[in-house]
Amino acid sequence: MTVSVDLSGRNALITGASSGLGSRFGRILAANGANVALGARRKDRLEALAKEIGPNAAAIAMDVGSEDDIIAGYEAAEQAFGTVNTVIANAGIDGAGMATETSEEEIGRTLSINLKGAILTAREGAKRMISAGVKDGRIVMIASITAFEPSPGLVAYSASKAGVVQAARSMAKEWARAGICVNTISPGYIRTAINDAWFETEQGQKQIRRFPKRRLMGEQGLDGPLLFLCSDASEFVTGADFVLDDGQSL
Hints:
One of its GO terms (molecular function) is quinone binding. The protein is α/β, with parallel strands linked by helices. It contains 8 helices and 7 strands, in the order E-H-E-H-E-H-E-H-E-H-E-H-H-H-E. Helix 3 (about 65-80) runs parallel beside helix 4 (about 105-130) and helix 4 runs parallel beside helix 5.
């Protein structure tokens, strides 16, 4: 089913846009009228995606592990389209591995990209919206159902996503009077480049069979709620988390 929402006048910055959910977010927002600044480290992939989308897309090289890179990314997005009034903090890594076998470095990197990077991305966007007098700002942060359920082998990842949900709620309250709505989407398991190899294994197949519908979600399952949260229709929604998991957490 195709979802249609008018996002004309929305200048969106999307992190982690070079593949997976991020690239779909870029396509779906642009198809509904938004200008999209596609942010990620892999500039070649971003340029190919921007070319595919058309003139309302721009490829922005940025690494959310670096605040300087985030600031530079916003500067580039503003040069392309003007003030960013819509942010999708999507960049993330899985940090998979049993807790007793995961290195300190890997734990730190997972928390840095998934949590600190998301907070810095949202913060920089909010600072610029407030400075520009934007009163209809939208920030959507991508969390996960692992934020709410025990996830062996994903300790750092699940902790980072739980942090994203609580950070978003706190920022939503902090920026409410500035007119900035901050919400999270907590997807279930969707086959993307980040987990494709796992779901090809016997253990991954067993996990799928344990889900109530015995399937992975399709990427299109996030389209409607994402478009709603980026639109004017979500004016009265802030500090909310949308669990979209096809019943996987039941």
